[in-house]
Design a protein that fits this description.
Oligomer: single chain
Shape: globular
Strand order of the largest sheet: 1-3-4-5-6
Strand content: 25-35%
Largest sheet: 5 strands, mixed, barrel
Helix content: 25-40%
């Protein structure tokens, strides 16, 4: 196996997977279809080297070959749990969101999008008021899930088991029927 013809990734860089009309939140496991040549190269390289992917949403989903100006600057670091090439030749990655990141700068010279990033560490305080809000949110989420015809049982279990307010908000936002730009706002909050 010959080494790649591009420079090694800097320590603070991520291979970026641009996505359209979808949002991966930290703590959520989500399947992503990968169709564009640069995206397939990104997913394959991350899977081959066991590196995380930086999932960044496009501002305009109709653009087929997004450049850096078409991408949001805040996204989610994701671990690839599984890479699948289907019998029809389509590519899919099952990812788990880990944490938020902010793009510092995009780097040229790779056959896929690469960016130096700053990982966003979430500070979390547990107060009685936050715990009361979490309890209320879990109750409301359980009621909402009862109304969904195909709500997976694991989703309710994940919501019940969550002890972090930030993680609870991410899990619920990930499954809410929000527009992509609204989910981006939640991710950036």
């Amino acid at each position: 196996h010959k080494p790649p013809e591009w420079p090694p990734l800097p320590e603070d860089a991520l291979i970026i997977l641009p996505v359209r009309n979808t949002m991966l939140f930290p703590g959520v496991v989500f399947p992503l279809s990968v169709g564009r040549k640069r995206s397939i190269a990104a997913a394959q390289e991350a899977a081959r080297t066991d590196k995380p992917l930086g999932i960044l949403q496009q501002r305009d989903p109709t653009i087929d070959n997004p450049d850096e100006s078409d991408l949001n600057r805040v996204g989610t670091v994701a671990t690839i749990l599984r890479y699948v090439t289907a019998p029809d030749g389509s590519h899919h990655v099952i990812c788990q969101g880990r944490e938020r990141f902010r793009v510092i700068e995009f780097l040229p010279g790779y056959p896929f999008t690469v960016a130096r990033v700053e990982r966003i560490v979430e500070q979390e305080a547990q107060t009685p008021a936050i715990e009361a809000r979490m309890h209320h949110l879990k109750r409301e989420a359980a009621k909402a899930l009862e109304l969904l015809p195909q709500a997976p049982a694991e989703l309710l279990a994940a919501i019940e088991a969550t002890t972090s307010g930030a993680r609870l908000a991410d899990i619920i936002a990930g499954f809410m029927d929000l527009k992509p730009n609204e989910k981006q706002e939640v991710l950036e909050t």
